């Protein structure tokens, strides 16, 4: 039985409420003075990752109570229910097994077959042995999708640009016709491959864009040429076939894979082609390693669990409604957009797993941008504004191109910002209130050795598991997205009126 416990009825929640009254005004600067080993005490080293969560408004008692809360809501049982394929997405009667897509040493037969299909297909595209209708090799790939069928692969492909081959990748998502035509205007039909990603192959946005691209293609080519330039990621073979795409060029999906967790599947075909199958497999491996850590590590040493518990602490006790994510690498410029869907579509719920409206806050608003750009954009609000905004800082120790001067300055900014948010101007004399910084602003620092396909896989998986833990604590179903359906229905009603 999947746990369905109202967190506010637990003993730990009641203790946390009382504890919050005692520590609400405690300043982190004083905590660091009284705990000389605070950084070491509140850090987790795992593989090439280091999470430093010492710069948070918490004490050892806070952490103990948060861990008690995790036990009381039966988080361990919930984790096992997900990993063992229980139908935890009860509103849709589905299992949630995106972790099974990346368990390379223990793959389901159908997943293994699809990965093999992706490997062989991507090798043909990359090598140039796959020819277009005029006999020329493919040079450009256009992915047509929406939501998770776009945000995941677009983010991963951008993040792994350093590992890309000669293929140029493009992503069409918005039903805005200008977006479509702007993408197509410099493409050559003879050397362009189109990947249409739609589980149902009926999604209005995706199919409208696909038909527009199809019409563009047929301005110069024949219907019989479609099979050389269009492939599909879908379960609806009938609709795919009527579009002109053969079954051989169709990659399957499963109903136990949610869209926003699907980049590990054939939805990631564009990424697989862009970076090559061996790198794509490393992406899967990295996520699988984090899956094992999440499933096996004690909660006190568990990176996703700790991040989730701290998020609940701020959201539900400090009433901090937003969290900022600041990656100090331009490669992760699309990471926050990806997280916004993953987190806010998952945990933007007001009905609990018992079917009751909640009387406490769920979900968090995720926003952010890459450092150092963010420092010159919205950091003023975080430093001196009236809102409490917990931040995750993400940095890679090694630069991919080896430019040490740039990397040294980048990391200096990373460390300086978390120090400034912690200390402010406390203990120093300032000329006036305008130059006063209160500090005491919470941050997590996630240090990773190097941006590789493997480390990116682990990083993404951290946030997937974090949102799962949050959803378990808030007693909501994180894996449906009923909230996106009403607008779709009303749009169709307007179109048909």
Automatic annotation (TrEMBL):
Catalytic activity: alpha-D-glucose 6-phosphate = beta-D-fructose 6-phosphate
Subcellular location: Cytoplasm
Name assigned to this protein: Glucose-6-phosphate isomerase
Predominant cellular place of this UniProt entry's protein: cytoplasm
PANTHER family, per database record: GLUCOSE-6-PHOSPHATE ISOMERASE
Gene Ontology, cellular component aspect: cytosol
Species per Swiss-Prot/TrEMBL record: Patiriisocius marinistellae
Coiled coil: none
Protein EC: 5.3.1.9
Keywords: Cytoplasm, Gluconeogenesis, Glycolysis, Isomerase
Biological processes per GO annotation: gluconeogenesis; glucose 6-phosphate metabolic process; glycolytic process
Keyword Isomerase: yes
Active site location: 345, 376, 488
CDD domains the record matches: SIS_PGI_1, SIS_PGI_2
Involved pathway(s): Carbohydrate degradation; glycolysis; D-glyceraldehyde 3-phosphate and glycerone phosphate from D-glucose: step 2/4; Carbohydrate biosynthesis; gluconeogenesis
GO terms, molecular function: carbohydrate derivative binding; glucose-6-phosphate isomerase activity; monosaccharide binding
Pfam families in the record: PGI (PF00342)
Keyword Cytoplasm annotated: yes
Similarity field: Belongs to the GPI family.
Function recorded in the entry: Catalyzes the reversible isomerization of glucose-6-phosphate to fructose-6-phosphate.
